[in-house]
Structures are given as C-alpha cells and as structure tokens.
Amino acid sequence: MQQLEIWHAVVLGIVEGITEYLPVSSTGHLILASSLMRLDKIVSKGDLDDFEIVIQGGAILAVLGLYWPSVLKMLRGVLGKDPQGFALLVNLFLAFVPSGLLALLLKDKINQYLFYPVPVLAALFLGGVYMLLVDGWQRGKLARVPSSLPTKTIYDVTPLDAIKIGLLQCLSLWPGTSRSLMTITGGLFCGLRPKQAAEFSFLLGLPTLTAATLYKLYKNLHQSHKLGTPNMFQSLGTGACLIGILVAMVAAVVAVRWLVGFLNKHGLAPFGWYRIALTLVLAALVLGGFVQIGDSGPTRKDATQTTVEKVKVWDKPETNPTPAPPAADTGNPPVPQSGSGGPK
Predict the structure, then answer these.
(1) How many Å apart are CA 229 and CA 223, to the nearest integer?
(2) pLDDT digits (tens, 9 = 90+) for 286-327
(3) How far apart are CA 224 and CA 307, in angstroms?
(4) In whole angstroms, what is the distance from residue 41 CA to residue 88 CA?
(5) How many CB atoms neighbour CB 195 within 10 A?
(6) pLDDT at 95
(7) 223 half-sphere exposure, CB direction, 13 A CA radius
(8) For residues 320 and 337, is the Cβ–Cβ distance under 8 A?
(9) Rounded Cα gap, residues 309 and 193, in angstroms
(10) Domain boundaries along the sequence of the chain
(11) pLDDT band per the 50, 70, 90 thresholds, residue 331
C-alpha cells in the first residue's frame, strides 16, 4: 500500500471543505472524488474512510474562525455573563443530542445496511426532490410575510425549535442525505430566514462534526495500537493528512461565505436540481464500474488478518508435506528428516 500523494490530499480537502456546509452531501462527493482518483486501489480503504471523517476538522476550524463572536458569546454565557449566548449553547446541545445518541446506537447498522449504491443514490435523489418542495413552500411563505416584520435570529430559536431541528438532523445519518440539508430546512420550518437558518446549521456543525471526528480519530488510533498496525497518519502520510485538513479549512471558509449570500438570492432550488443531476451522474458511473460505493478493496481489518496469518505460518515449524521415501534397509537406524520433531 502506498501513501496519499499531496495532490490527492488537496483534492479531498477542497471537496470536503466546499461540500460539508452546502446541502449537497459531502459523502457523495467524497465517494466520487476518491473513486475517480482510484484511492481505494492505492491506500488502505479503512484508513481512507476514517480520514474522510477526520478531514472534517478543517471545516470545524473554518466555522470557529468565521463565527467566533457567537462562540465567544456562548463561552461568556457559560460564565453567566451573556444570557443570549447561554441560551444558544443550550439550544445547540438540544439539537445535537438526538442525532448523537442515534449515531452511537446505529453506527454499525448504518454502515452494514445503508452504505451501498441504492440507499446512497436514493438519498441523493430524494434529498433533491425534498429541497425543491421546501423551496416552493418557502417562497410562497416569504411572499405572505410583510417585509416590515423583524427577522428571527439564531438567538430567538426556542428549545422546542432546537429539538425539531435535531430530529431532522437524525435523517442525515442516512448516507447521502446531507446534514446541512436537514438542519437548514429545519431552521426554515422554525421561522428562520435562509441566512439565519444557515448560520444555525453552521454552529450546530461544531458539536456534531467534532463528535464524529474525535470518535473516528480515537477509534483509528486505538485499533492501530491494539492490533499493532499503522494508524491513518502513518498509513496515508502525516504531511498529506495535515495538508488535506488545512485545505478543507480554507475551502470551507469560501463555501460558507458564498452560501449565505446565495441562499438569500436564489433559495434551495438550484441545490435540489444539482442533487438530482449528481444522482444520475453517480448512478451511471456506478453502473459503468468507475465508482464503488461501499466496502471494496483491502481494509485495515483484512490487511491485519493477512499479516497475522502470515506471521502464524512463519512461526510454524517447517514440515515436509511430501513423505520421505522409505530408507533403504542398511541395518542402521533411519536419520530423522529436518523439522520432523525427532532428535537432533
């Protein structure tokens, strides 16, 4: 197995950074990018899958940098100096809990039953149709709202609103759905304008993505230590991994700034049509054998098992599979064959 080349890491970083906060499914785009670069044939599939989660660290840093005033307000709220900040922190926690608990309970079942072409492509397509329907509803709703009414901000979100958004975020556990899609539309249903809904979604990504990133990082490092195999940084290359995370941060900054303005002007419909088109392209590539969705190629577990089997074979005493021909009757005791277990 080879390590990631720098340009591989840069491409993955760009794809992750751009698609993580856009309602288009970062999972689908990372699958497409990895398959087109044939990374599953070059590097460990298990380490690559883990890195495609850990690379979200760049997207987390981007939101921390862009929305540090809100983060600071929440920190001041913990100290009892900012009631608005504390209320926002509580609401983000309430919105995070449902999907966090469900992910812990169903993570293995999700990978086992849903990480295959039909479920992923169905999620991409239905997500696009859903966005078109929500966009039509939202445009009709905004047309009936007088422009003189005050805009609801992220600090006006109620605990019940937060729970509703959190329940919708649970649907994003289905690969191909998009966390941003469900949380942005959840914010719209709770009365937020597109810009404010996107901001709440970005901030909700902090605990959600951080939990997923730290879990995958811990699991990878722990398994490597337990089995005595290289971790993802050793397998893929520490430099390439860090560059990928850095590029993801820069790309996410650009994407977040662009998305807020785009949603206000154009709504969700363009993303809906894009998801439908992406589904058709991805389906054609899957049928053509250019893209693989789901487990393929050697995984960390497979590689470990192979290594262990080789070690076991190496440690076995050599045996002669072909029985030695009978010794000629010379009157002397037969000389034992090497490795037969006889006296030496």
Answers:
(1) 8
(2) 999 888 887 643 344 444 443 333 333 334 444 445 555 555
(3) 13
(4) 45
(5) 16
(6) 97
(7) 16
(8) yes
(9) 59
(10) 6-305
(11) low
